[in-house]
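Worked Example 4.2. Read the sequence first, then its structure tokens.
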Amino acid sequence: MKILLISVEYLFRIILTVGIALLMITAMLTSCKNDMETIRSLDYTDTVPGLTAKDIEIIYSENAKMQMKLESPLLVNQEKDGPVLIFPEGFIVFFYDSLMNLQSTITADYGISFEKTKIMEARHNVVVENLEKGERLNTEELFWDRGKEIIYSDKFVKIATDEQVITGDGLFSRQPFNEIEIRNPKGLIEIKEEPE
């Protein structure tokens, strides 16, 4: 017959260790209990502000070909009513043709893009340049619908080339600003006669 001798001190350590472990398990199980009424009564408030980024570049492409590039010193992204990109310090958009030749640009001191509807609004000192035709448009507000690929405004517009200046009460154009329809046009227009 074997006799197992255990010291009182060793036995005390085992009892203490088991006791502490049981006490911790009991505390953890009771502390994880939640009252559902208490949880439902808590108000959830989203305290995360809009995300910001500095010196950004956004590229819009189709079929792996870049159609346009947007650059801005500051972007604020808000998710309140769907993704909304705000450019409080202005932006510039570059439009390219299928061969990656720069066709036109849009700059403004402020912009907001509603990503859900694909509509971008440019405000304050808006300038559109058609580099192929040498045309420059100035207005205070311009809308760009990326889904429909149109550019339009209901505000006063001025279009200048080397030969003429035309003003109007708004405009409509297909992207990338190749053919423009001006509402109530006024100005000096040079008409070239074709040789007979």
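Now turn to a second chain, presented in exactly the same format:
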Amino acid sequence: MPEPRKPFDRERALSVMASAFRTMVPLNAALDLEAIDCDFGVSVMRLPWRADLVGNPVRGVLHGGAITALVDACSGASVFFALPKPVPIATLDLRIDYLKPATPHKAVTARAECYRVGRNVAFTRAIAYHDDPSDPIASSAGTFMIATKGDSVMRKAGS
């Protein structure tokens, strides 16, 4: 019989997401990804608008690659928040459908949910949007390998 799940500690999870995700993945720090919210199996992050992250200077819209990195990081965080204990993970597959262009000069928010955790693979879905999650810029489906080799996020965060 599996051991009972401990209550989700939102403040601690946000703290780990804010520090460890930036330390463990330098791209997250370079993009200035912000941890906004989380819950069991759910993560919300924001990618601030910056001129150096724009794909086409004439349009002023964040580059699709930066938005993909946001969705990947947010999806990975949702997997961590669904696991009974933190272990290294790796993205196996991330499919993103871009539904419309981002708005020029606006930050993008992503919300990801880990909806299934198997023995070796976790499954996520996510959306990227500006102000209204019901009006997404992009949607994604992802799969993540669980317990890959590497340092634990919690150990890196000093826990």
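Notes for the reader: The beta strands are 34-39, 42-47, 54-56, 61-62, 89-98, 108-117, 121-129, 138-146. The mean pLDDT is 89.
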